[in-house]
Amino acid sequence: MKKKDDIIKVAIISNLGYPLYNRKCKNEVFGGGAAVQLYLISKKLAEIKEVDVSVITGNYGFTKNKIEVLPNGLKLHNIRPFKRKLSYYFLSLILFFFELVKLNPDVVIERGMNKRVGISALYCKLFRKRLIFSVANKTDVDGTAEKGFFGKLFKYGLLRADRIIAQNYEQISELKSNYNINSSKIDLIGSSYYLDEIKKSIIKDSILWIARAIEWKRPEYFIKLAKKFPKEKFIMICNKTDEKQTNVRYWKNLKTSAGKISNLIFKEYVPFEIINKYFENAKVFINTSKHEGFPNTFIQSFKTNTPVISLKVNPNSIFNKYDIGFVCKDDFKMMEKNLRTLITDNELYKKFSENAYNYVKTHHNINENIKYWLKIIKGL
């Protein structure tokens, strides 16, 4: 792609990531775990002198500047309309393509299913650049994302990606079986975080759930669980996915249901830069999703010595291998039983808690995992 001594220009595409880069922007609608991972990877890559990093992000209307240069050297390109109306779709794709042409990156990094992936692949094909696609969720690779015109556009990009980053072995299997993608194009790199020193003096006094208001996250199960443990403090942090009427209605119904339970605290939105304190204060983190890639919230929990109880999701069989919590086979009664066990058995809790931090230190340390990203970028 380039000579070894040259700077490699990397464009990271994060339409809903702007609030993570600008803390003054308090908009609660952002891209969840996928956006968080792109944010952390971009920050870490910006520290590397061989790489020049730009982030193309949606325009939240917070600034009139089309390009913002951050203190760490990252450049934000706020170019595409943030509105999601159908009339804006084609306009946003055209603007996005020409921004790529103008920026002229050597490598484009996309994460998660979206129509832009096809446009990124087209740019890379026309200008002999390279595309890295990072899988965010099971639905990126099980065929769900192919529906409709924009689904076909996504598939076009996925099939033409030069390298694909998977989060778990199930995603690798799906990529091979559903898209006949060769193993040589796929890499397994876990989601990654900066790891802090454990704060021993913190009192853990809550049962925590954090996610966006999406039906497949199944937040109703957490509300149901809170009713079963009236003496425990439950905290639910649930922000709206977007401003679509159906989503707002769903979110409002959740808020109303949670408000009827005296031991359940419902928080509409907590900025990313202060969310860590909720994990630090949590005794247990609860996940109720039908499917995930590798939840960021798992890593955020483990790095604060907080065990996880997952209703169904068990990426890479981590709960079976590392004794860091429980997976409940999609059985609510088993979840209830496991939570009762974990908060009453002090020895088991201590074991899971210590194992959680040791696990995340070994597998999800961004200082180590960024080396694999850099190797891939340089090798394209």
Summarize the structure.
The protein has 14 helices and 14 strands. The protein has helices at residues 18-21, 32-45, 86-103, 116-127, 148-159, 169-179, 220-228, 245-259, 276-280, 296-302, 318-322, 332-344, 346-363, 366-379, and strands at residues 8-13, 51-59, 67-69, 75-81, 107-111, 130-134, 163-166, 186-188, 206-212, 234-239, 264-267, 282-287, 308-310, 325-327.
Write up this protein.
By secondary structure, the chain is of the alpha/beta class. The chain has 2 domains: 8-192 and 365-379, Glycogen Phosphorylase B (Rossmann fold); 206-363, 3-Layer(aba) Sandwich (Rossmann fold). It has 14 helices and 14 strands. The chain has helices at residues 18-21, 32-45, 86-103, 116-127, 148-159, 169-179, 220-228, 245-259, 276-280, 296-302, 318-322, 332-344, 346-363, 366-379, and strands at 8-13, 51-59, 67-69, 75-81, 107-111, 130-134, 163-166, 186-188, 206-212, 234-239, 264-267, 282-287, 308-310, 325-327. The protein has an 8-stranded mixed β-sheet, with helices on both faces. A 6-stranded parallel β-sheet has the order 11-10-9-12-13-14, sandwiched between helices. Helix 5 links the parallel strand 6 (130-134) and strand 7. Helix 2 (32-45) crosses helix 14, helix 3 packs parallel to helix 4 (116-127) and helix 4 crosses helix 5 (148-159). It is globular and about 60 Å long. The termini are close together. The mean pLDDT is 91.
